[in-house]
Every structure is written in C-alpha cells, then in structure tokens.
Structure of LysR family transcriptional regulator:
Amino acid sequence: MSLVKYEIFSKAAEVNSFTKTAEELGLTQSAVSHAITSLEKEFNFPLFIRNNSAIKLTQNGKDLLVTIREILYYNDMLKQEVNAINGLNKGTVKVGVFSSISTNWIPYIIKEMEEKYPDIEIQLIEGNYAEIEKWLLESEVDCGFVNNKTTSLHSFDIVKLKTEPLLCVVSEQSPLHSNKHLSVEDIENAPFIMPTYQCFDDIQLFFKENNIQPNIRFENMNENSIFSMVENNLGISILPEMIIPKGLDTIKVIPLELEQTRTIGLAIRRPVSPAVKKFAEISENWVKTWGLN
C-alpha cells in the first residue's frame, strides 16, 4: 500500500487532470502518470479513462475512491492524534462552504484559527448545498456547512449554528415597496426572479409547504445579478437574510407574512479528527459571539 499513490489518485479524481494534479502536489506530470499506472497494474484494472488531456474515473475507480479517501483521512487523523499527544496542534481541515458563509463568516473563523492554531491548515471548497453533501459523502471534505432543514446527512454529526429568516427583496419602484409584509397573493401576482444555485432548495421548500405558485420570470444563479434585476424593477425575489447586502438604497427588504427560515449547521465526518474538532469549536463559538447579529 502506497499512501503517496493514493494521495495522487485522490487529487486526480478531484481535478480531472494529471497536469493539474502535478501542479497542485508539486510533482512532475510523469511522476503522476507513473503513480496512477502503477496503481492500475497493482489493482489489475484501469482507474481512469484517458482522452487527450482530460481524464475521467472508470466505474471501478469510482468504487475505490471513497475507501482510498477514508484511508488517507485515517492516516492524517493518526498524525494529528500523535501531534496532540506531543502537545502539538497540527493537521489539515478540508471544509465545504457556500458563498454567503465564505463572505460573512469564513474570513473571521480562519483568522481566529490562525491565531490560536497556526499549524492547522484550512482548505476551502465552495459549492451549493447539494455539492457540499456530495463531497461529504465521498470523503472529499472533512466537514461542511449545510442547511439543516434540507440535508439528508443523518449519519453525520451536525452542529446547529444559526437560524435566519428568508426575506423578500423588491425595488423602491415596486407597488409592493410600502408593504409591511408580503402575502402569498403578493408573491404569486408579481414577476419572480428565482435563485437557482445557493438557496434554491430553501425557496422551493417554502413554495411547496405553502402551496405557492410563483410567476417565475427569470432564473438566475448569480446573486449580484438578482439584486440588479430587482433594483431595476424586473421582478421580486426571496433570499436568506445573510445573502442580502446591507445599505441598498434602491432595494426594499420586506418580511414574509408566512415566516420561513433556514438553519445553518456544520456537518462533520466521523470519527472526528483533532484538527476538525478545533475548527468546529472555533466556528461554533465565533457564530455564538458574532454571527448571530
């Protein structure tokens, strides 16, 4: 068993390129190719489909990926536990994050981690709820921020961090801008701009639970584009409070008559490594102190 080869295989499966794998691991491309070829000879079947510069996992490669990442995780956890016994806090924590967490929480959490545990490296991978759950299930990340209401990760430890409301955003030019609350009828009668990436599941759940049939005019993955469309009175939208920038003079934020929330949690792989435990503790304490405002 070669842990170095396993690390090369895991990284190649992540980036789908031998060239990029070599760059990220500080190896030559020939060393990467040799390691993969050696594993394929050892296992007696191909791990990747090669197509010019692109590579793709074979089904056998996919079947082995989670197990190999588990081996690498336990090896890293062993190193961390030995360091902890020797009074050292060292290790790597791979964290799945979505954009509003990256913007509002992560810079402050990492700063505190670096101050208290400078030898623990934090690696971030950004995606939406579904992508983060997939990375957790495939052992690509050690922990990840998730939506407690929609998550299917029931076998993971999930630390509840914050519950926040979904709010409606409308243009100052909209006839709805003076409303204190927005009703189901208000939402159904106005052109709606549907977020399709980060908070799609939150809004879909709200519509489903309340039997709302929105008049979807646009679907948009980019939050800044959504705000621009709302600002120009092309429609209304619904977003979690954390996503909505403060001090937008041309956009009015209005509560929903039927209150809806999302709950953000930190899902953690078991068993929990010492470095991940430190990251979870720092995250939870920071949110309790600062992130609830």
Notes: The longest strand covers residues 157-171. The chain has a mean pLDDT of 90. The chain is about 45% helix and 25% strand.
